[in-house]
User: Which sequence fits this backbone?
C-alpha cells in the first residue's frame, strides 16, 4: 500500500477555529474524518476521543466524566444520539471556556434537527471531501473568487488516472489496487445502508432505496427525473424524493441545479446528480464529468466553509438544449464555466454561446487527454493542469 503523509487542507483552519468556537466536520463514511480529528488531537496537551459507536464512550460522555480542563474533546458520530444538539449546547454554555469541542459525523451536521435548541453562532461547520488531485499532490492553495484559475502547474497524469480509477477516498486511492478497491467499495456500501441509513433515518423500504442508489451511477451527468425513477422502481414520487434527500444528507450523492437567469430561457429546472464516490460510475465520460464535478464542489465548499464566500455550483441548459456541464458563481454572478470532455480539439460552441450570453469571465474546456490552447476566448486545458489549480 502506498503511504500518504500530506496534511488535509482543512487541518489549519480547523485548528484556528477551535480557539473560538466548536467545530463540526461532516463528510462521507471513510473519507478520513476520524483520522483528521485524531491528528489534531495528537498535538494537544490534554484531550480525549469518544465515539458514539462504543458503549463505554457513550456512558462517559453522557455522565459528564470528561477529561480535566482545558481539553479538546472529540465526539465522533454523536449525531446518532437523538438529543445531541441540546446536550452539546448545554455543555458549551456551561463549559465553553474550559473545553473545546470537535464533532465529526457521516451526516450533514448543519441540517439535522432531531430535537434540542439550535447551536447557531456557537460552531463552524466544515465538509471533508475525498482527496482531490491538488490535495493528494500537496497543493494547498485555493483560487481567489472572480480571478482566473492559475493554470501554470500540473499534477501527474498517473495521479489523475488513479483518481478516475479508484476515486478519492483515502484507503482505495492510496492502495492503488483494483482488488482492494472492489472489496472496499462492497464493504462500504453494505455498511452505508446497514448502519448509516438504519441509525439515522426511518426507511421502511430499504431494498427499494438501495435500488435507487444502484440506478444513480448510470444517470450521472444527465438531468435527473424523479418521475422516471419513480416509474422504474414502482414507488411514489414522495418516496423517491425523500430517499434522494437522505442520500444527499448522508453524502452518497449530491445534486447540481441549473443556473436560473432571465438571460437564458431554461428548458426545465431539473438538477443533475453526481456521486461522492465517482468510481461507482461505469461510463468513462460520465465518470470523468463526475470527477470534475467533485473537484468543483470541493472548491465551492472550501471557499464557503473556510473563507465565508458565497460560491455555488450549477450547470447551464436552455430551451434549445444547449448545455454546458458546470458554472461556478460568486455572489450569484458567473465566475467561470467548465465543459468536461475525454478528448478532442473541437471547442464547444455551447461554451462560447453561454460565455457571451451570460458574460462569463472565464471559460474552460477540460480534457482528459489533449493539448493546452486558447480558441475564441475558451481555454482548452488538460485535466492534470486544471485540477492542480483547485484545492
Assistant:
Amino acid at each position: 500500500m502506498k503511504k500518504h503523509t500530506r496534511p488535509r487542507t482543512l487541518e489549519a483552519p480547523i485548528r484556528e477555529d477551535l480557539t473560538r468556537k466548536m467545530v463540526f466536520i461532516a463528510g462521507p463514511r471513510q473519507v478520513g474524518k476520524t483520522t483528521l480529528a485524531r491528528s489534531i488531537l495528537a498535538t494537544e496537551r490534554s484531550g480525549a476521543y469518544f465515539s458514539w459507536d462504543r458503549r463505554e464512550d457513550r456512558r462517559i460522555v453522557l455522565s459528564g466524566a470528561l477529561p480535566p480542563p482545558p481539553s479538546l474533546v472529540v465526539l465522533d458520530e454523536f449525531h446518532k444520539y437523538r438529543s445531541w444538539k441540546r446536550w452539546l449546547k448545554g455543555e458549551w454554555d456551561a463549559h465553553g471556556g474550559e473545553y473545546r469541542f470537535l464533532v465529526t459525523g457521516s451526516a450533514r451536521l448543519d441540517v439535522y434537527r432531531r430535537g434540542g435548541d439550535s447551536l447557531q453562532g456557537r460552531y463552524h461547520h466544515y465538509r471533508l471531501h475525498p482527496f482531490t488531485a491538488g490535495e493528494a499532490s500537496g497543493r494547498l492553495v485555493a483560487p481567489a473568487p472572480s480571478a482566473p484559475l492559475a493554470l501554470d502547474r500540473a499534477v501527474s497524469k498517473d495521479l489523475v488516472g488513479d483518481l478516475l480509477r479508484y476515486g478519492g477516498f483515502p484507503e482505495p486511492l492510496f492502495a492503488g489496487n483494483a482488488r482492494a478497491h472492489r472489496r472496499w467499495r462492497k464493504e462500504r456500501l453494505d455498511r452505508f445502508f446497514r448502519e448509516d441509513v438504519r441509525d439515522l433515518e426511518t426507511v421502511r423500504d430499504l431494498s427499494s432505496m438501495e435500488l435507487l442508489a444502484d440506478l444513480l451511477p448510470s444517470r450521472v451527468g444527465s438531468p435527473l427525473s424523479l418521475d422516471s425513477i419513480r416509474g422504474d422502481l414502482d414507488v411514489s414520487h414522495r418516496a423517491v424524493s425523500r430517499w434522494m434527500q437522505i442520500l444527499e444528507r448522508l453524502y452518497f450523492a449530491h445534486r447540481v441545479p441549473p443556473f436560473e437567469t432571465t438571460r437564458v430561457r431554461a428548458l426545465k429546472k431539473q438538477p443533475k446528480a453526481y456521486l461522492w464516490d465517482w468510481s461507482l460510475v461505469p461510463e468513462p465520460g460520465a465518470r470523468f464529468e463526475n470527477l470534475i464535478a467533485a473537484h468543483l464542489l470541493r472548491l465551492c465548499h472550501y471557499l464557503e466553509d473556510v473563507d465565508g464566500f458565497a460560491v455555488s455550483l450549477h450547470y447551464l441548459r436552455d430551451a434549445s438544449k444547449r448545455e454546458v456541464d458546470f458554472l461556478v458563481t460568486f455572489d450569484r454572478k458567473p465566475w467561470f464555466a467548465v465543459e468536461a470532455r475525454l478528448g478532442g480539439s473541437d471547442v464547444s460552441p455551447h461554451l462560447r454561446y453561454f460565455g457571451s450570453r451570460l458574460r462569463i469571465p472565464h471559460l474552460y474546456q477540460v480534457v482528459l487527454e489533449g493539448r493546452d490552447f486558447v480558441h475564441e476566448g475558451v481555454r482548452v486545458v488538460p485535466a492534470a493542469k486544471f485540477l492542480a489549480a483547485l484545492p
